[in-house]
Design brief:
Length: 120
């Protein structure tokens, strides 16, 4: 199995910054891409940003310029730098990894999420 662990969430004031981290561990042979999603109290889960193993990044049009995804030291680690945070950014932020596994083939694995709260 593959475990996804997010970290870095917390409480921040409007205009502040946070850096989320996500690491995949366990039995996998390759990570094709990793992504960040978020789900606010009254909203559906939405894609924030993603990055492929080759380093190609995608950012939501509404968040590009404030949020930036990057790879860590390995293909199984990503970060999300969030600047200029607003109360509307309050959400649970989830990370996923699209990975090849010996037992289950290629699957998308999800973390449990990390809470980001932006106070006004």
């Amino acid at each position: 199995q593959v475990q996804i662990r997010e970290s870095g969430g917390g409480l921040v004031q409007t205009g502040g910054s946070l850096r989320l981290s996500c690491a995949a561990s366990g039995r996998f042979t390759r990570v094709w891409s990793m992504a960040w999603y978020r789900q606010g109290p009254q909203t559906q889960r939405e894609l924030v940003a993603s990055i492929t193993s080759g380093g190609n990044a995608y950012h939501s049009d509404t968040l590009a310029g404030r949020f930036s995804i990057s790879r860590g030291n390995s293909q199984s680690e990503v970060h999300l730098q969030m600047n200029g945070l607003q109360p509307d950014d309050t959400a649970v932020y989830y990370c996923n990894a699209d990975a090849d596994t010996p037992q289950a083939g290629r699957r998308v694995f999800w973390g449990k999420g990390t809470q980001v709260t932006v106070s006004s």
